[in-house]
Amino acid sequence: MIRTVLKSLGRRYMDVSLRTGAGHIVRIVERPGLWMDDATLAGFSAQLRNIAARTLPAGALTYGVFSGDKARMGDVIITLVCRADGTPIAFNALAIMQIDTVPHPTEVLHLGLVMVDPDERSKNLSWVLYGLTCFLVFFRRQFRPVWISNVTQVPAVVGMVSGMFSDVWPGPRSDRRTLNHLLLARQIMDSQRHVFGVGPDARFDEDRFVIEDAYTGGSDDLKKTWDSAPKHRDARYNNFCADMLDYDRGDDLLQLGRMDLAAMRTYLAREVPKSAMLGLLVTAALVGLRRVILPAIHWADSRKSWATLRPYKDSAP
Predict the structure, then answer these.
(1) Distance CA 186, CA 204 (A)
(2) Residue 275 contacts residue 281 (beta carbons within 8 Å)
(3) 92 forms bridges with which residues in the sheet?
(4) pLDDT tens-digit readout, 284-314
(5) Residues in Cβ contact with 285 at an 8 Å cutoff, skipping those fewer than 6 apart
(6) N or C: which end of the chain has fewer CB within 10 A?
(7) Under DSSP, is residue 118 helix (H, G, I), strand (E, B) or coil?
(8) Where are the alpha helices (DSSP H) in the chain?
(9) 159 C-beta neighbours (distance < 10 Å), count
(10) Are strands 252-259 and 210-212 parallel, antiparallel or unpaired?
(11) How many other β-carbons are positioned within 10 Å of the β-carbon of residue 24?
(12) How far apart are CA 181 and CA 186, in angstroms?
């Protein structure tokens, strides 16, 4: 752990690892396309494709982390889960979206593409794949709320997101749609469809937050029938999705919510196994410490500019 701390302090982007109580190793890598060399990035991407090969029965995805575009890998945070022997078994490619809002842009974390090896789907990995990265980003942002988005037709995922985050819309237990929900949804559908593989012809129903005929932009292999879509243990989410979505056409829900203090308490109390709590808190402390140490390192480096206090151009790459 000490070695991991020392290696991470000088990095601009998050690259942390922790062990879970189930014996898995979780690695969270922020924007690998901006700092990994070509060979390292190719090896990292190969691990994701190995998981996809065991997850999809046929076909190949053509968007996001599977597009082969290094620029795309510069706008994602990858959560990769491996067995103790290094075999990759699951990942979440969480996209970082900059939404053009007034008076300042809003950063939205899109929960993105999640894939789990079929042999590992009963290992309680949801707290890692859906909440862990958002929790660490929230911690690093000094507990300022973080908007999250999710596009899915799977009732189990709709219920998971609804229970893990705050102010989630839509859902059977959602209180109301706010103006922030609506404005963010409009911006996401106007400029970010490529992030979740929805084509330009797909219609967005603003009243229900339903994307109609969504599987036309590279995500075709993810389309599910009602029978094949994993169900939630709470029948309300299953009934909600059955009523809202046309599975023959290929509809999706766009969910928006926030990671805030209330969601953090829920996440720690309900989602994180007690056996993994210590490792999670140490990792969160590491991420928070970097927010204190890294600016000091940058300030001490006289070769680097520092806004108006040291405004000259960088002399080093």
Answers:
(1) 9
(2) no
(3) 79, 114
(4) 766 666 655 555 555 555 666 655 555 555 5
(5) none
(6) C
(7) helix
(8) 2-8, 32-35, 38-55, 126, 133-140, 155-164, 179-191, 235-244, 261-266, 274-300
(9) 23
(10) antiparallel
(11) 19
(12) 9
Spatial contact of 202 and 214, defined as CB atoms under 8 Å apart = yes
Q: Report how far residue 317's alpha carbon sits from residue 311's, in angstroms, rounded to the nearest whole number.
A: 16
The pair phi, psi for residue 104, each rounded to 5°, is: -130, 150
Numbers of helices and strands, H then E, in the chain: 10, 10
Other Cβ atoms within 10 Å of 247 Cβ, number: 16
How many Å apart are CA 177 and CA 170, to the nearest integer? 7
Residue range 76-115, pLDDT digits in tens:
999 999 988 889 999 998 999 999 887 888 999 999 888 8
Residue type, 249: R
- How is residue 307 written in tokens? 């806004």
CA distances from 266 to 127, 148, 165, 171, 240 (A): 11, 16, 8, 18, 23
Long-range contacts of 3-11 (CB under 8 A, 24+ apart): 4/286, 5/286, 5/289, 8/286, 8/290, 9/289, 9/290, 9/293, 9/294, 9/297, 10/294, 10/297, 11/35, 11/290, 11/294
b/e 29-44 (16+ beta carbons within 10 angstroms → b): bbbbbeebeeeebeeb
Rounded-to-integer distance, Cα 115 and Cα 282, Å = 26
Q: List pLDDT tens digits, range 116-168.
A: 888 887 777 888 888 888 888 888 887 889 999 999 999 999 999 999 999 99
Contact 65, 102 (CB under 8 A): no
The angle at the Cα of 28, spanning 22 to 31, to the nearest 5 degrees, equals: 165
| CA–CA distance, 26 with 100 (Å, rounded to integer) | 32
